[in-house]
């Protein structure tokens, strides 16, 4: 029983000491705030002296008239007087808060910035955090200046080949039947910090270039040569396709609209004319030929996947022009379609490209 009484007395003395020292601590804070009030007045008055001195110098140099000098001094005095009034009011409110709550105040703090993803509420006693509540904010961080955008790229159109010593009109491939398809992803980055007239575009694309021979001919691989030969059966369809993975790079020019707010700066190319020029490089993923024909009354479909001496490395030049996300698109392979061919052929495509 005596032991319990002893520990109870120790606990009572500890609690009393905490209350006494807590009272002294927040009283010291109040005294410090009262001293700070006087320092604010002295600071603003000293700043006013420097401003008046500068105005007098300008008056002596003849930069301003006496009337202008008088007006500037009055404006400076009013500004400093308002500064004193507002800053003193803040100190007095802090003193009132401490006195009303006897030093136990709630402090609301938001880490980093208004775009922070977490909010923290601290309950402080005697200037020390006692309880902390953390909560995640649902607001997504918004970048002030977004220089890079990305788009899904989709293109489709006519495909053919430029053959050495022949014009496009003499091409052995059907103009309407030979088509290309392309899809990929690109990133668009503003080159200059304070201007958007030049952009750098880069990404990756899958290209599918198709050639449809005219007549009743198919591609045949003979050693290191790939040639067109007459097929023994009547063809319903003959189509040759090259599948490529390429990495396009373009420089893009064109106007844009600047949209600026207190929180963001954005350059928009929506509904604007733009033109891009550049090239691409990559790899051939596969070459195949699809045949449909009738043999002895039976419909036959052949899908032949072979090398066909097609080029392994793909590289070329390309460009586009148009408004918003609808663009006229042209690309030309600098590599030959077939390696070591007696007659050089280069793939060429023309169509529409959509940046979505």
Note the main sheet: 8 strands, antiparallel, barrel
Helix content: 25-40%
The fraction of residues in strands falls at over 45%
Q: What's the helix-strand series?
A: HHEEEEEEEEEEEEEEEE
Helix-strand makeup class: alpha+beta
By DSSP (H or I, 4+ residues per run), the number of helices equals 2
How many β-strand runs?
16
- Based on CA atoms alone, the radius of gyration comes out at 39 Å
Q: Order of strands side by side in the largest beta sheet?
A: 4-5-6-9-12-14-15-16
- The oligomeric status of these chains comes to single chain
What does this entry look like structurally?
- The structure is a single chain.
- By secondary structure, the chain is α+β, with helices and mostly antiparallel strands.
- It has two helices and 16 strands.
- The strands form four sheets. It has an eight-stranded antiparallel barrel with strand order 4-5-6-9-12-14-15-16. It has a three-stranded antiparallel sheet with strand order 1-2-3.
- Strand 10 and strand 11 form a beta hairpin.
- Helix 1 packs antiparallel against helix 2 (66-101).
- It is elongated.
Short summary of the structure?
The chain is α+β, with helices and mostly antiparallel strands. The protein has helices at 2-61, 66-101; strands at 104-110, 118-125, 128-136, 148-163, 179-190, 198-211, 217-222, 225-230, 235-253, 257-260, 265-268, 273-295, 298-305, 313-323, 326-333, 345-355. A hairpin with a 7-residue loop joins strand 1 and strand 2.
């Amino acid at each position: 029983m005596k032991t319990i009484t002893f520990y109870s007395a120790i606990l009572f003395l500890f609690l009393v000491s905490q209350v006494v020292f807590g009272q002294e601590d927040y009283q010291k804070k109040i005294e410090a705030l009262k001293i700070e009030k006087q320092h604010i007045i002295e600071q603003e008055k000293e700043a006013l002296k420097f401003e008046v001195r500068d105005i007098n110098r300008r008056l002596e140099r003849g930069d301003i008239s006496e009337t202008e000098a008088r007006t500037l001094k009055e404006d400076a005095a009013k500004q400093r007087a308002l500064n004193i009034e507002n800053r003193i009011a803040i100190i007095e409110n802090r003193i009132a808060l401490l006195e009303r709550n006897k030093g136990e105040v709630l402090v609301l703090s938001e880490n980093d910035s208004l775009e922070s993803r977490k909010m923290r509420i601290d309950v402080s006693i005697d200037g020390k955090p006692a309880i902390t509540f953390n909560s995640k904010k649902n607001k997504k961080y918004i970048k002030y200046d977004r220089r890079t955008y990305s788009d899904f790229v989709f293109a489709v159109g006519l495909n053919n080949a430029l053959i050495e010593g022949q014009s496009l009109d003499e091409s052995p491939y059907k103009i309407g039947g030979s088509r290309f398809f392309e899809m990929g992803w690109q990133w668009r980055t503003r080159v200059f910090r304070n201007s958007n007239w030049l952009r750098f575009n880069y990404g990756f694309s899958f290209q599918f270039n198709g050639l449809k021979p005219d007549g009743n001919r198919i591609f045949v691989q003979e050693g290191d040569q790939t040639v067109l030969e007459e097929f023994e059966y009547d063809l319903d369809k003959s189509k040759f396709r090259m599948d490529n993975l390429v990495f396009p790079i373009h420089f893009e020019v064109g106007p844009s609209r600047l949209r600026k707010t207190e929180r963001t700066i954005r350059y928009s190319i929506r509904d604007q004319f733009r033109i891009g020029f550049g090239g691409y490089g990559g790899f051939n993923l596969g070459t195949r030929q699809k045949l449909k024909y009738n043999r002895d009354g039976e419909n036959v479909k052949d899908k032949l996947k072979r090398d066909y001496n097609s080029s392994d490395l793909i590289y070329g030049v390309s460009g586009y022009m148009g408004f918003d996300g609808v663009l006229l698109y042209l690309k030309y392979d600098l590599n030959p379609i077939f390696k070591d061919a007696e007659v050089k052929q280069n793939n060429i495509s023309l169509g529409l490209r959509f940046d979505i």
